[in-house]
Amino acid sequence: MLAGDGFKNAGRLTRFLRFTVERTLAGEGAELKEYRLGTDVYDRGADFDPRVDPIVRVEARRLRAKLAEYYDGAGRLDAVRITMPKGGYTPAFELAAAPAQGRRSWVWPSVVALGVAAAVITFGSKATPDVVSIVVIPGAEAADREFADGLAEAVSAELSRSPAVQVVAWPSFVEYRQRHGGSVQTAVAQTAKDLRAAEVLFVSVRRSGERRLITGHLMNPKKSGKLWAGSYERGAAAGFAVQREVARAMADEVLSGLARRP
Fold first, then answer.
1. With CB atoms 3.0 to 4.6 Å apart as the test, which of 46, 107, 211, 230 could cross-link to 111 if both were Cys?
2. Is 54 a domain residue?
3. Domain boundaries, position 254
4. 162-177 tens-digit pLDDT
């Protein structure tokens, strides 16, 4: 499901679905309230107020639509269906049976439980790639160096939330950079080797007037070519807000790409 066209480019919805399914199967379905989803899935702060910020409700509607689209198309023959009933955020699992007359019926809950157990094994094995070690390296002119550092730190934090990624801790990178004269932009391959990272996410920031162009390049220093590239143009005024927004978007795209790797 997660590797299909409907979800592979929807990183945050994928995270929403995975989180709610895993927590429900762990016996925590009753705890899936708006506040927890807002803080654990959408990284809102402790002051998150669902009455003011409707992000969870909006994304839940999107997820229900995505699930319906999936089961109307690529997943129409799936033995187990995952739904998100309206009025809550706890997934429901149904094991579909197709009798001889061609109409769909539903089997008893005990059989559904067995089907869900099998589905979870598949869900986890297909959606969780091998752990990849990544170091995030910022690059910018002097005027935007502090902004680039803050953005790289935010991207590192976002990536580290995924069990599929082992990120070089930002303080470790800063200490390494200081030992090498304050700049590692010209020695990306050596930086990755020294910090034991298989891949490098290079985050560059360039400014034109009151606009910033933020570009991310994911690469394997031992191989030629880029594994992923993306760019984001934002105003130069809202520093922290832009850092947080772009960091989430960049991490989502990188993680989605990792999930699609064979």
1. 107
2. yes
3. 132-259
4. 888 899 998 889 888 8
